[in-house]
Design brief:
The protein has 10 helices and 13 strands. The protein is an alpha/beta fold. Helix 3 (109-120) packs across helix 10, helix 6 (213-221) crosses helix 7 (225-249) and helix 7 (225-249) crosses helix 9.
Length: 313
Amino acid sequence: MKRNLALGVDIGGTNSVFGLCDEYGKLYFEESVSTTDYSTPEELVDKIYERIKSVGHLPNVEGIGIGAPNGNFYSGTIEFAPNLKWKGIIPLARLFEYKFKVKTILTNDANAAAIGEMIYGAGRDLKDFVTITLGTGLGSGVISGGNLIYGHDGFAGEYGHIRVVPDGRLCGCGRKGCLETYVSATGVVRSIHELDSKHSETSELINLKNPEASQVFQLAEDGDEFAVEIIEYTAKVLGNSLADFTCFSSSKAYILFGGIAQNGPSFAKKVKGYMEDALLNIYKDKIEIRISELHDKNAAVLGASSLVWNELS
């Protein structure tokens, strides 16, 4: 019996993951390849095509969804992604359509995650929410009325690059004070050396050679006062920022995804508390902080493939 499957592709600077799943999120095939092994995007497209063909599922592919850095939904292009070896504007959706002969939808990875939550995850019962991805950087996807907000140019919803601290930490985008420099996993690590605290000198964090955000959360659970302070500060910055963002979207929920969301069971509760304290009265006690339900699954592939089912629905 022919199964209708979506091919989900997540393009990363180091690795690219692709897989086949049905509209219920059941995964039938999955594989990861090194993005840097392919000198041109055409070579990567050819590789994925041959693998899908070799496992016998090529006739089942109903459509293709792609999550990519600096992905533009309207044009189907990756535009000047700094972490990819392929430079300039890359017409990736068109390359996949030409090879596979099926509809291909491309967007940035945070937008794909938001659609994934709406189709498969913690946003299944919601029409108005924002997914906040807390990884190396901070990404966001804004769902309003059941539709993803793209803006006129395909790049709406860059919450990570809203400046929350005047003349604050230098961001990779070249500006200062962006939210992701404080709240991402990288931001948490930066706080070890950039947060002024009387507890820093006696903390175990100072002695770690290459600290990771997960270690900050673990030491906080163990009672390290500086680690506790960093987690509290991170939650405060995020909670206050979400309170301000609510004035724009009036979302029913913020869904947190990524290692930070999973590290420390009380983190979401802390964020909720700071958000409530800072909300306008008209929004108080109306907004939830949820944790992604896709952490124990391949969120990258599911998020990308969900673009297909969202388009067909």
